[in-house]
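Sequence in, structure out. Go.
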Amino acid sequence: MDTMTLWHLTGWEFAALAFAALLVGFSKTAVSGANTVSLAIFAAVLPARASTGILLPVLIAGDILAVLTYRRHAHWPTLWRLFPAVGAGVVVGTVFLVWADDAVVRTSIGVILLLMAGVTVWRRRQADGEGRPDAAGQPGAGGTRAGRVKARSYGVLGGFTTMVANAGGPVMSMYLLSAGFRKLGFLGTSAFFFLIVNVSKLPFSAGLGLIDGRSLLLDAVLVVFVVPGALLGKWAVTRIDQRLFERLVIAATVVGGLQLLLP
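Output:
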């Protein structure tokens, strides 16, 4: 069956979705948070609520490629601190989706992302001159009370935003940057984090009717474009220094937040 006809897509609309899928692959292996642009494209071309269910398998394909690329650099103590809070956030996000309309969802997440970007910029300036982790990403303060509170706060926000709009990337990017992760540790930890979280979201999304046979048919076509995006990201990340990497992640978060706030 022709997926363009099934979803009433024009050639330009399908090209936009293909570009968004390519950008998902790039964001997973290079600049995490950049896939908020993909989120905006999917929501603009497809019905906003349905777009979250269609985008999820595309994100999982990118997560798998990212894990294969950066699996040696994940920092599991950080992941174990985050998962309980993220699970709570996913449940809250599921309840929120039952009654919230698209406008409320977009505005809420846009505000959260901009606040997280502002807090992270402030915290990074405060932390200048302090010790930073090595390339494998070893956080320094995760075991303190303040570190645990921060992990829980970001975890709940990340679970909430990833459930309601697949927009957890920028929130977790802000957490990992604020924790002092460098490039490879950042990418390896976020790769495993989002693979596990996104796969766990599948039954919730299916239960809400966001994933069905029609959406999976479109996904089967779009995931093809994730692979070249991931390869491009792997090539680009070795050519981006740490300071530029952090600025790109924060910029992508701000752009994503602004896009969600625009009508």
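Check: DSSP finds twelve helices and no strands in the chain. The chain has a mean pLDDT of 82.
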